[in-house]
Amino acid sequence: MTSALILAGVRKGGDKLAAFAGVEHKALIPIGGRTMIERVIAALRASGRIDRILVSVNRPKALQDLDVEVIKSADTLSESVVEGVTALGTPALVTTADHALLEPEWVRYFLDNLPDVQVAAGIARSEVVMGETPDTKRTFLKLADGSFSGCNLFYLRDMDSLRGVELWREFEALRKRPLKMLQKLGPRAILAAATGRLTTDRVAAEVQRLSGGLTAGKVVMPFGRAAIDVDKPEDLILVRRLVGDTAA
Hints:
By secondary structure, the protein is of the alpha/beta class. The chain has one domain (2-242): Spore Coat Polysaccharide Biosynthesis Protein SpsA, Chain A. The chain is built from 10 helices and 10 strands. The protein has helices at 16-21, 36-46, 77-88, 104-112, 126-132, 165-173, 178-185, 187-194, 200-210, 233-242, and strands spanning 2-8, 30-31, 34-35, 50-57, 69-72, 92-96, 119-125, 141-143, 146-156, 216-220. α3 packs antiparallel against α6 (165-173). The longest helix has 12 residues, at 77-88.
């Protein structure tokens, strides 16, 4: 079995989406009769693969009524992951409270198709994402083997995997700035991109190099909606519509 860490902190700049939705915390935004965080917890439990759930949140009191363990998040995303996974132990799946469309099938598929690596991320092809949700606005990383979006699903196999968390944070911060991401990967990645040879496997190899040998890989998800989270008001409107929420 695997433990699960749900990140429910708020980015710098405040909880603007919560204010838009009229709730005290983003994780408590209602979608289809349940809050976002409740939807994520329910999907993890229903997957049958998760034996323990921990929520890392900037204001624990806001989520005190949830039937899960809750800890206060750290100052940064990477520190929150380290503290959360240290409390849980490994292997651990990491996702976010705004992954409101999360389905048990997605969790099972992700865990069942993990490569033999220490850290892995779920990604989805642009044609799959846009095929399922043509009116969504996503940022895709264009590579030689396709264009991809992240799916807010991450796997840490062992405690040594935590060495790569800070690197993950840096890449997550650059998720909408592909050129900056290439610069972070280094000159070999830039050359490969310029010559049309930069693939997802090559990116994983560069991540392994940058992390000092930590093995990395990906799971290509066949579920387009797995790439949709709720960051902006338009995301909330879209997700509510997708689940048939009359508030949409």
